[in-house]
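EI: anyone free to look at a 335-residue chain?
SC: sure, send it
EI:
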Amino acid sequence: MRTLSFIYYGLLIAGTFLNVSCSFFSGQEALFEEREEVLLQLPVWPPQDGNQYPKLSRWLIHIEGSGGSEINDEETSRQFYTREDSITIKVAKNQPVAITASPLLLDESEENEDKKEVFFFKPAGIIYPSRKKYITWEGGFLAECMQRLLLSKKESGISDLHMQSFISSFNWKKAQEIIDKKLTKCLQEELINGTGESEEAAVNKISFYNPWLCDSGELLENLSFGVFSSEFLNNSECVGLAFEGVLSSFVLENAYISRKKTVLLKKNCPTLFYTDKDYAIILTADSAKNLSLSYSNLPIFIDKTLYEEKNNINNSMHFNTNLDFLLKKGKQDYF
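SC: here you go
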């Protein structure tokens, strides 16, 4: 795959460049010496938005850190499950760590006699360091993007220290603020009520923002070359459809769906929605009037599936990595 080849050679070149800097390595012990415990609140389940959600079985927590981000016995990657409403992790102070929390649901359909878990909703997340002490649905997209970048080092062979310098080059806080502002704006807007417009006209000017509909492949590829624009966080090539009785995989969208009876899709991209039945539906559209619908079983969760998928960098997340470009320019904020 072109992705892995670019990752491999890009990161190795960056590693070669950094190896000539003895002073950089001499300070690594001091850099990672101070550690702290961080208590993080998990999202409330079920979400309090008036919709009916399936029962929660447990949370899948995925923590991915850069060099020096101790999570457990000097590991920089860890997954575990919890049924508590908070988690405590130990990290190297001020070193970047991405935490995601995915709700695993109870499949209570009659066909599922073993009561297997299903995986549907996008994860909540947070990127440490942060003043926030809670994991949010708003933060899930960027946290997973950072995890994918960190996992790429397992394919490239780059050292933890080099990857830590690379990840720290970006202003993740500012990027998250862009997402937060977009979500706050669209959640406050009323597109149909009180406008005097027809439902079709209102749907055509839909402005709900879903960060998971951004082109994550484009975002990650540009990040790897030290390029960022707020435009990478825009929803483009999307279409609004009059539809109701379903739940989006992005939890924050569901209050909007129930209120506006409208869903947002990426054009020509099959999108899975949860129903109150024992199945899901897949919607595909290239316009508000050209829609196809099919049915699907709910995705059954298999232990370690998420980690393996992220580690393999699946086709929807292809990106190239060129750390040499970043590190030669020095540590900066690229957002």
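EI: The CA atoms of residues 285 and 291 lie 4 Å apart.
SC: 👍
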